Each structure stands twice: as C-alpha cells, then as structure tokens.
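Ticket #4471: complex job returned nothing on first submit. Input attached below:
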Amino acid sequence: MSTNALTCTAVSVDFDGFKAVNGVDLTLERGEVHFLIGPNGAGKTTLVDAITGLTKYAGSVVKDGVELRGRKVHHIARRGIGRTFQTAQVFEQLTVAQNLDIAAGAARPALSLLRRRTALPEHVVAVMDQIGLARHAQTPAGILAHGQKQWLEIGMLLVGDADVLLLDEPIAGMGQAERDTTGRLLHDIAQTRAVAVVEHDMDFMRAFASRVTVLHAGAVLATGSVDEVTNDPRVQEVYLGAAHEQETADAATA
Amino acid sequence: MSKFFSTRAGAWAGFGAAALVLFGAAPLVLSGFRLGLLAQFLCYAIVAVGIGLAWGRGGMLTLGQGVFFGMGAYLMAMHLKMADAEFRGGAGAVPDFMELAGIRELPAYWVPFASPVFTIAMILVLPTAFAVLLGFAVFKRRVKGAYFAILSQALAGAFAILLIGQQSMGGFNGLSRFRYFFGYNLDDPVNQQMLYFIAAGVLLVVVAVALQLRRSRYGELLVAVRDAEERVRFLGYDAANIKVVAYATAALFASVAGAIFVPVVGIISPASIGIVPSIMFILGVAIGGRASLVGPVVGALAVAWAQTALSEQFPSAWTYAQGLLFIVVIALLPGGIASIAAATKRFRKEPATAEAPA
Amino acid sequence: MDLLVGQLFTGLSTGSILLLAALGLSLTYGQMGVINMAHGEFIMAGCYTAYVVQQVVGDAGVSLLVALPVGFLVGGAMGLVLEWVLIRHLYHRPLDTLLVTFGVGLVLQQVARDVFGAPAVNVTVPQFLRGGVDLLGTAVPKTRLFILALAVVAVAAVALVLRFTPAGRRIRAVVGNRDLAETAGISSRAVDAGTFFIGSGLAGVAGVALTLIGSTSPTTGQSYLVDAFLVVVAGGMGRIKGAVVAAVALGTFQAVFETYSTASLAKVGVFVVIVVFLQLRPQGLFTLRTRSLA
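Support reply: We reran it on our side without changes. The output follows.
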C-alpha cells in the first residue's frame, strides 16, 4: 500500500479573477504530520476548502486512486477526508458522547437512525479516551473549554474513520500545556493516517512537524523538512521581507 | 420532575395522564359544543407537533403548513361531498354545490374520491410526497433559512389563490354542508363525540411519534443539522435527506389534522389555509416552546382558545395581542413557555452545585 | 403585434411596480440579511400618506408631488424606529426577525384599521395623469407610465447614491466586509440604520405610487409583500441589478401567463418558475462572492 494518502496536482482556485490558490502541488503521506504555513491570505484555508469540495477548483485531487474533484462535500467526507475549522464546529447543544456518536454514524443504515442509542460503540469510547474527554462524556459541547472543543472536533474525525485529516489552526487560542497535548495527539493519530495542519505558530511547527509546505500568494514557495524550509532564503524573505520593506519605506520617508 | 418524564416510565405516565384527561375528563365536563371546539383545537395542535419537529428541532421555519393542512382537508371534503351526493342521487351524482354553480358533469379528478380507501390513501400520501419533492428541490440546493421561509409562504399564498379560482373546488366559499362521515350522520352528537375521540387519539399518536423521533439518533442528527449544518455535511451526511424527513413528517401531520378538521368544523375554505393561517400555526408553537415536545401542543391550544374567545368580541384588541405576542415572545423568550420551565429547574439546581468544589 | 406590445408593456408595468416595492427590500435584506415582514405595511403607510396629504392639500397634482417626499420620510422614519427598537437586537437571528417584524406588521395593519377604517379609500388621480397615451398602437395608461418612470428614477437614484456618495460607499463597504469596514472606522450601526431608513423610505414612495392605480386598505401592503420577497430572492441578495432584472422578468412572466390563463394561475405559474429557477441557480441572479461558509 502506498503511503501517499492524498495527491494534489496543479490545484487552482479563481474568485472572479483573483487567484486565491495558484497551481499548488501537494502530497500528504501516512505517518506524517505535514504543516501548511504561510502568511495570511496565502490560500491555505482556501486550499482546504477546495480539497474538501466546498470550493470549485481547477486541477486534480486524488485519494487512494480516486479523483475527488467535482464530488459533493459529504461524498468526499465519506471517502475518509476530515477537516476541522478555525473556530471548532461542534454541536453545542449535544453532549460530547452524542457528538462523537453522530460523527461515527455516517455509514449507518438509514432506518437504524430511528432507534434510540443503547450504548456507545467501542471505537467511539476509545477515541473519547484518546482525546482526553472521557470524563466529559455527558457534558454539552457548548460548555467545554475552547481547547477541549478543538479536541472534540478532531475526535469526531477519528470516529468517522477519516484517514486524511486537514486541521485548520488547531491550536489557536490554546495555552502552552494544551498545545503540547495537541501536538502529542497529532503524532499519535498520524501513525496510521495522513495529517495536514494549517498553522501560523512557528514554535509548534518546529516541535511537531514532519514536513512543511510554505504557501505564498496562493502558490507553493518551498517544501521539505523543518530545517530545509526555515533555512530557505525565499521563505525567509517572505516572512521577514515584509518587515524589511516597511523599514526601508520608513527610512525613506523619515 | 422533568427528569422523571425523560425516562420510559415517565413517558408512559405522561401519556396515561393525557389520555385520562382527553378521553375521560373532557367528555364528562364539556358540553357537546365545547367538545367540538376542543376537537378543532386538537387539530391545530396536531399541526403544531409537526412544526415543532421541523422548526423547533430542524430549524426549518415553514410558513406554509397551511398548504398541507389544506390538502388533507380538501381531500377529505371531496370524499364527503361525493358520499353525500351518492346518497342523494346515486353513483356518479354531482355534489350539491356544483349543481348550484352550474357544473353538470363531475370533473375527472373528483371521480376516484368516491372511494373512502382511495381518499385516506391520498390524505396520507399526496401531501407527504409533495413535501418530499419540494424538500428535495429546495434543500439539495442548499436553499435554507430565510429563503425557505419565504418560499413556503409564497407556496401557501399560491395554493390559496389557486383554490379560490377553482369553482369545482368551491372557489372562495370552499366546501361545506357535509351530511355524512363514512356513513355516520354528522348531525348526531354521538358521532361528533366520536370525531373528538379520533382527534384526541391522533394527537396522542402524533406526539408519540415525535417523541420517538426526538429521542432517536435521527433526532440528534436533526438538531445537529439545525445548529451546524455544514459540520454535518463535513461528517459525511447528506443534510438534505435529514431535513426532508422532518419536513415530510410535518406535512403528514398537518394533512391528517386537516382531514379530521373538516368533519369536525363542517367547512373548509381558502381562508383557512393561506398565508395568514399558516403563520398563525407558528405563533402557537413559538409561545409554547418550539423545541420542546409538549410546548407546541400547549401553545397551539392556548392560541386557538384565545382566538375563539377573543376575536369576535374584541377583534381589534386580539389583533394587537397577536402582533405583540409575536414580537415579545420571539424577541424576548424565543424558547417559549417551555424555556421558563427549564430555566426555573436550573435555578433550583444551582444553589446545590454552587456549594460543590469547582 | 398589438398583443405583443400590450403584453410587453403590461409586463414592464407590473415589473416596475414590483421593482418599486422590492427595491427597498433588496437594500435591507441584502444589507443586513434582515427580513422585514413589515415592509408591506410601510408600503401601506405610503398609500395612506398620499391619502392624508390629499385631504390636506386638496389639489390632486400638488398633493401627489408633495406626497412623494413625505411618503419617503414617513416610511423612512418608521423603518428607523423599527430598526432602533427591535431589529438591531436581533441581527444574529434572521428567522426570528422575520417573525417579529410580522408581528409589527399585524399591529400596523390594525392601527390602520382603527384610524382609517377597514374599507378601502381612494386617492384622486391628478388630471395630468388621467387617460392614456397611444404607444405603438396600444393605449397605455398614463398612471402606469408615471410609475414606470418613477421606478427608473428610484433605481437610478439608489445606484448613484451607492456609487458616488460617501454614504453610499460606506454602505457598500459594510455589505462587502463588515468587520473590515469597522476597522476602517465606519460605524456599521449607523450605516445599518441609514440603509434601513432609505429602504423603508423607498417603500413609502412605492405606496404613494400605488395609489395611482388602485385603492388603499389596511391589507394593501400584504398583497405586494410576497411578490417583493420573491423578486429579492430571485434577483440575488442585495443586488440592485438583480432586483431590476428579476422584477421585470417576473412582471413579464405574470403578464404572459395572464393572457393565456387566469390571474390566479398566473401567480402559481410565477411561483413554479421561481422554484425551478432557484434549482438551477440557488444564489439568485447576481451575487456578491464572499469567502463565507453560508
């Protein structure tokens, strides 16, 4: 079995002439945590929107030999692609257990939905442990702490048998301890899956990334290991260059 | 106390109590006339249960339930008219209002409604199928929220206009003056009481169905779609299918309610099914508590009773009251009366939990 | 040929009426996603404004010219009050806004009933608008021509304001990206109130215009409300262009359907057309492309 879980080729997203994503090639492999970084507006979230079927795009996205382009959002989700959102989208009125149970059930036969739940399936309980929310099984998701909601959202993808996870800023708003927990969770789940993380936080990236792809203005600027990318002069220019330009402009007008 | 009702035993107890009141107490306490009024209110309550499911749990503000209510009502009315005509003039006779309107020959689409079996089948199937079609057309295309509300309202308006224009459906005056209901003479108070029992029984059945749906996995899914539809899609579910089920169920309930309404009240006209009646169904559900099980029933009964008691004596004041109720209840108490009950329960619990260590 | 011209003109005329009724709604619905079910009653208020002005002024021509701006102010003021008292508290609850404003509409209808009585009242048409004009062989009523011209002026005025005035630019900024506009120093609260004022004012103007072709009763507004919403829905939220095209298209459809069947079947036909159209293009005719999930 190839380790290539997801292959994006020449993906481009055009919003009325504005190219939000411009010819991006990206491969995600099982066993890695692949970070997608880049300045705001670089097209990271738009790329995820495209892969998951929310936005139209040109190019090709292939998972396990099947082309995903043109398919509906829920079909792509059923094929094992899971994504999280910048603000965790969970079902606030339902409990943690209910959230996970629903997430696990997309493949259930329709008529079985008409019955009450008798017990949580085993793998749902296992995931609840994995994300550290077993104590909160009966807590409504709406009153969870911010970090716990993020973990719940990730958990929902795990119970649904997602094997390609696209996580959009999973540590936004988390404290240091929570970040470490999240990082270890990511490594845990990446063992059998492909995990892509859209992030800004450089420290988090240095600590937990297996590979990094840098996006800028919708195109891939560099890709490789953490060291390769941080030492790449083009990347340095993009991340430092804006500050540099401002300095020069300030000096000129002074 | 509501914890008790959440258990299976509690649910049975609740139904038992309701059955006792509806079947035991009410017929003894209320006169024939008032019992008939209550039967009418119960019909509105049946519609309200459906709305509670579609709107309260599913987030679909359907302003067009009058269409399904009207379908069930007119379908039943057609059969009753056919049966009466047959009784008077033999098979194939033209109903009395058609004779008066100068329609000598029975329009083709009326003919099958001579059969009670066909009529009942149509009452159950036709509006539901229509709701399924409309639901798919609208929800698959991700038309939701406000757009859906407006479309459903326009549908109610179009339906009423269509009926007003159809002389063979009674036009503006609708269909009335029914003599028999499946062989039972409608003038006989015993049969009127039977109709009341039918309405009460159907209400209990409908509430039981709603309860099961709420407690099932489907019920959770419906709430999930209401609160975070995109998330549900991203989990692999087709949210449109989930919504269609709730919408079609609401349509079915409304249709059955309409069908019972006709022999109880004795008339159905476009005035009962257009834009304004459709949105009035919503008022009762909103007051009682749209997302609760019993709230819509209580709210619908209360509004229907107030309407009957007040609209004739104080028409101006009642209209103001309706408007103000819409404004105040929705703006300040969107969960309806049921949310007051829930809030007081939480309030009573809090002093205890505040003492426990954080 | 006569028939075709007649149909086309009726379509344009009906379309222009729809457009006047829907223009303000397109602003308020498109601007804030606010569904104001009392919009019909604002139209009705415009009708009664024309009636009252005529009682005061007497001369039909003068009263019409006075009533137009007064109707705008009356409608605008009502909209402002409604926005300030109720709607601004409900921005994140669009469906609830719909129901609340419906309640407001009910109250307003009853007020009209209590003040003016339930039976319809009439506003005298000024002398210079009576009769018809011969256009390509068909007799075209002057009142309808006037309304057509008024609709054109109204659309032009709104378009000019949006494009060239500072206020208009602020409105466009808030519609495009509310948060960004706020960081640029624009008070979205003030802009919202202002947009609601203009939108409701337009409803008032529509009401005044409607008195030229029909009588006024407390329920006059209701009959235009659903149609106005359908125009907005079909045209695409908040797009003036869309409202114009949709209004003319729907007006024409209705006129064509009416010649071949009854008025009621025409309404049903229009409804079917819209549902089918939304199947093919659920976002309406023209949309603003934004990167939101909705």
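Residues 102 and 171 of chain C are 26 Å apart (CA to CA). Closing as resolved unless it happens again.
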